[in-house]
Amino acid sequence: MSVTWSDLDENEQTALKRLNRGPYPALEPSMAERLIALGLVERRPRGIGINRAGRELVIGVLLNQREG
Fold first, then answer.
1. pTM, entire model
2. Residue 43 pairs with which residues in a beta bridge?
3. I need a surface site. Which of 7, 29, 49, 62 has the fewest CB within 10 A?
4. Are the C-beta atoms of 61 and 5 separated by less than 8 Å?
5. How far apart are CA 32 and CA 29, in angstroms?
């Protein structure tokens, strides 16, 4: 399943951007579960972290903003 930026609501987009910068301790457990189910983040020994698919999605959006 491929997730696009528009598939995410504003809170999910914000959470993913914050996770892209590093740990996000304020991430709600329900939001974490949703992002895990979407395949954008994963559980790690130190908590929830963004994975490759999530990082590629965020970086693609950020690059498009710069170009637009």
1. 0.90
2. 48
3. 29
4. yes
5. 5
**Cβ atoms of 17 and 41 closer than 8 Å:** no
Q: What is the greatest pairwise CA distance in the chain?
A: 38
**Digit-coded pLDDT (tens) for 12-57:** 999 999 999 999 999 999 999 999 999 999 999 999 999 999 999 9
- Residues in contact with 20: Cβ distance below 8 Å, sequence separation at least 6, in sequence order: 50, 54, 55, 58, 59
54 close to 40: Cβ distance less than 8 angstroms: yes
CB count within 10 Å of CB 40 equals 23
